[in-house]
């Protein structure tokens, strides 16, 4: 009885020893490698102007003269955008060799008219800002440049009856700039945050 027990124990130990010293081949598998590339979209606009002075010299204005400026803005970026234009009008007089800002007495004789064609809306709080009413598609959505283009015409006229002698030799400067923010995502930016985003 004792012998049989000894043999049984020995066999068990020997078997465990064989298991511990054995080397097994394991089956393996690996999937192919997947690479995902994400390219950020772009917000980019191109603005140009065409000036029609209607025959008079810009450097020799007369009361009653009118000039027309047509602005063309094209969305060159991949993203859809919202667009606005900011305009600033100032008079200058020459003092020595410098042009300095000048304010006319009484009503300003310069009349500024925006021909928006129903496509632009003037900011009720700031009349110098105009917003394009529609979203403008990006190049990722359409290759048709006409579908990515907005136009705005501005007319400036030196009113004859109002343009007294105080305007002689004065210079009028109309400055325009256009800004765009992305509009092709649910997280659409707000115009109030334009400077924050633009300067990052």
Description:
With about 200 residues, this protein is mainly beta. The protein has one domain. It contains two helices and nine strands; from the N terminus they run αβββββββββα. The strands form two sheets. Strands 3, 4, 6, 7 and 9 form a five-stranded antiparallel beta sheet that branches. β6 and β7 form a beta hairpin. The longest helix has 20 residues.
Characteristic terms for this protein:
single chain; 200 residues; mainly beta; five-stranded antiparallel β-sheet; four-stranded antiparallel β-sheet; 36% strand
Quick summary:
This protein is mainly β.
Give the helix/strand layout.
Blueprint: H1 2-21, E1 45-52, E2 66-75, E3 81-95, E4 98-102, E5 110-115, E6 120-122, E7 129-132, E8 149-158, E9 171-182, H2 194-198
Antiparallel strand pairs: 1-2, 2-8, 3-4, 3-7, 3-9, 5-8, 6-7
Q: In percent, how much strand structure appears in the residues?
A: 35-45%
Total E-strand runs: 9
The unreliable regions are 1-19
Give the topology string: H per helix, E per strand.
HEEEEEEEEEH
Discrete helix count: 2
User: What's the number of domains?
Assistant: 1
């Amino acid at each position: 009885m004792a012998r049989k027990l000894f043999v049984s124990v020995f066999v068990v130990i020997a078997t465990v020893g064989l298991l511990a010293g054995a080397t097994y081949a394991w089956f393996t598998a690996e999937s192919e490698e997947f690479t995902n590339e994400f390219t950020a979209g772009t917000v980019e606009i191109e603005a140009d102007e065409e000036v029609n002075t209607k025959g008079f010299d810009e450097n020799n204005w007369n009361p009653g003269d009118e000039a027309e400026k047509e602005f063309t803005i094209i969305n060159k970026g991949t993203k859809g955008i919202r667009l606005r234009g900011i305009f600033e009008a100032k008079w200058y007089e020459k003092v020595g060799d410098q042009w300095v800002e000048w304010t006319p007495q009484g009503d300003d004789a310069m009349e500024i008219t925006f021909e928006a064609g129903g496509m632009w809306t003037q900011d009720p709080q700031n009349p110098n800002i105009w917003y394009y009413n529609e979203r403008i598609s990006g190049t990722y959505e359409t290759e048709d440049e006409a579908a990515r283009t907005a136009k705005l015409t501005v007319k400036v006229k030196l009113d004859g009856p109002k343009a007294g002698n105080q305007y002689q030799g004065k210079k009028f400067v109309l400055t325009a700039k256009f800004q765009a923010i992305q509009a092709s995502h649910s997280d659409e930016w707000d115009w109030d945050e334009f400077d924050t985003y633009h300067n990052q």
